[in-house]
Amino acid sequence: MSNQLEERVALLEAEVARLKNKVESDSSSKPWWERITGTFADNPAYNEAMKLGREYRESLQPVSNESSER
Description:
Largest sheet: none
Number of domains: 1
Radius of gyration: 26 Å
Number of helices: 4
Helix content: over 70%
Shape: elongated
Distance between the termini: 87 Å
Order of helices and strands: HHHH
Low-confidence stretches: none
């Protein structure tokens, strides 16, 4: 039983080392937002989402009443 446990711990340690190495090597590359730039280029669904988001943000802006300001 202890042999099986030792083998499992060794496998887990190797996996943790592999994951740490991957995280360290990924952190030296470009930031995530630079890596995904252009992913949605010419995608109608993305363009629609951006349009809807813009309309929503604009709807939150206070409406200026020019006639009351005069």
